[in-house]
Design goal:
By secondary structure, the protein is α/β, with parallel strands linked by helices. The chain has 14 helices and 23 strands. The protein binds copper (II) ion.
């Protein structure tokens, strides 16, 4: 190892010489001085003395909202009161989960303080909680980040105080054993420690946080889903979500902006396991304060957000339409829920972009909030009152995000490429066959309404039994098909029977 040190030193000297050489009017002494000038000094220069004025109660906000900029020129004593609430909430349409939360939401309340502030933190664990909890704030200087001082039993409050010495965007999370389980249940959020001058002004600020979730049932399995410790240890999430719920930020809940505005996202990643490749489809981040730190990078497509990390990104909105926020580890976006949306209103800018909505391409049925029908069907099924009509409605919503890409929303298909489902001769001959086709896919030659197709339909085995039942019932009762009803049990039996609907094997 020792022999490497002179080599590195030599490289540094050479680099300095090269820099100085091409600098024109600059001289060699400039370079190190500039480097020092841009150094904020970190915690060494983060103490601006004792708090001044009356104590201030921190404004806490629920996601996707962010407290307003502080516009304060001196350090203060800031009181934060955060409640730990364990509660059942939807994690997807028709699916519930028992979340453990900071402030009743996932992610927890957003906290905003100024560098040099003295923060008096009150953590209250609600009396109806079943578990003890604590908090580790990554913006705290001191062992455990507050965890050791904040262990709080149900019905108790604990208090600790820290000085926010480093500016930046920091994750906070529960650190009670088993830590992974507390985090997986939603116990994380963000605290922004503003630099003394604040951040540059923007038109809108939003709070988005990714997390991975582990349920015993598969993705979209309806009803209440318990936490699955094995899947969590194996790092095989069932859901990867922004703001704790599939659809938390799509359809009517989409983030909003207008053209001509600059939008800032405070994005955190609670994990517990996955690293996020955060990307906004159709936008380029003008600035990214990567890792939530002091410096920004410019003109970024995708920024990496580690588990237990955060980033701040600004972008100017030029063109109206829907922008899709994803984890660009893309199966997570389209098959595990890591998809959010920002809708920008304003006049078209044809000179920048020719137009045509991105919605249908990237989101299918997720763009509109009609997935409510799916939840209604699930509720009805649970009560033993599921009607054919419920199934048709739910099936229609699911068809939009699943089958319509190929067979088209009106079931007419695309001539020579995707066969029609409307008045389908295949379904007329044997309506029950739809279950096998959806579960196992279809390949080889098939004649539909007198026209030959010889292509491949991939198995849709990401769908749950009730989803297949609802979609099948919808198709059978639409566009002049023979009608009839497919129940969940029939789908389960066909799935268990395995095999395929391959034409070649049948003929
Ligand atoms: Cu906890």
């Amino acid at each position: 190892m020792k022999t490497r040190i002179p080599a590195l030193t030599l490289a540094a000297v050479l680099a300095a010489v090269v820099l100085a050489g091409c600098g024109g009017s600059r001289n060699a002494a400039d370079a190190p001085k500039e480097a020092v000038a841009t150094d904020t000094g970190g915690s060494l220069k983060g103490d601006f003395g004792p708090p001044q004025g009356q104590p201030i109660n921190a404004v806490l906000t629920s996601p996707p909202n962010v407290p307003p900029p502080l516009n304060r020129d001196h350090p203060a004593k800031v009181v934060v009161e955060l409640d730990v609430v364990e509660k059942e909430m939807p994690i997807s349409e028709g699916v519930t989960y028992t979340f453990w939360t900071f402030g009743g939401t996932v992610p927890g309340s957003f906290i905003r303080v100024r560098q040099g502030d003295t923060v008096q933190f009150h953590l209250r664990n609600m009396p109806d909680s079943k578990m003890p909890h604590n908090i580790d704030l990554h913006g705290v200087t001191g062992p455990g980040g507050g965890a050791a001082s904040s262990f709080t039993a149900p019905g108790h409050v604990s208090r600790f105080t820290f000085k926010a010495l480093n500016a930046g965007l920091y994750v906070y999370h529960c650190a009670t054993a088993p830590v992974g389980m507390h985090v997986a249940n939603g116990m994380y959020g963000l605290i922004l420690v503003e630099p003394p001058g604040g951040l540059p002004k923007v038109d809108r600020e939003y709070y988005v946080m990714q997390g991975d979730f582990y349920t015993t049932g598969k993705y979209h399995e309806k009803g209440h889903q318990p936490f699955d410790m094995e899947k969590a240890i194996e790092e095989h999430p069932t859901y990867v979500l922004f703001n704790g719920k599939e659809g938390a930020l799509t359809g009517d809940n989409a983030l909003k902006a207008k053209t001509g505005e600059t939008v800032r996202l405070f994005v955190g990643n609670g994990g517990p396991n996955l690293v996020s490749s955060f990307h906004v489809i159709g936008e380029i981040f003008d600035k990214v304060w990567f890792e939530g730190g002091t410096r920004f990078q410019e003109n970024v497509q995708t920024t990496l957000i580690p588990s237990g990390g955060a980033a701040i990104m600004d972008f100017h909105v030029e063109v109206p339409g829907s922008y899709i926020l994803v984890d660009h580890s893309i199966f997570r976006a389209f098959n595990k829920g890591a998809l959010a949306m920002l809708k920008a209103e304003g006049a078209e800018r044809a000179e920048i972009y020719s137009g045509k909505e991105v919605d249908a391409v990237y989101t299918g049925g997720r763009a509109s909030p009609n997935l409510a029908a799916v939840a209604e069907a699930a509720t009805a099924a649970k009560a033993g009152a599921l009607t054919q009509e419920d199934q048709v409605k739910a099936g229609q919503a699911l068809f939009a995000g699943t089958c319509s890409t190929c067979h088209q929303a009106n079931g007419e298909g695309l001539k020579g490429v995707f066969p029609p489902l409307a008045k389908s001769s295949v379904l007329k001959e044997n309506p029950r066959r739809i279950v096998d086709i959806v579960l196992h896919g279809l390949s080889g030659p098939v004649t539909v309404n007198g026209e030959q197709y010889n292509s491949v339909m991939p198995p849709m085995n990401q769908l749950t039994d009730d989803e297949v039942a609802n979609i099948s019932t919808y198709v059978l009762n639409s566009w002049g098909n023979p009608g009839g009803r497919v129940e969940k049990a029939e789908v389960a039996a066909r799935r268990a029977a395995g095999g395929g609907a391959n034409n070649a094997a049948e003929h």
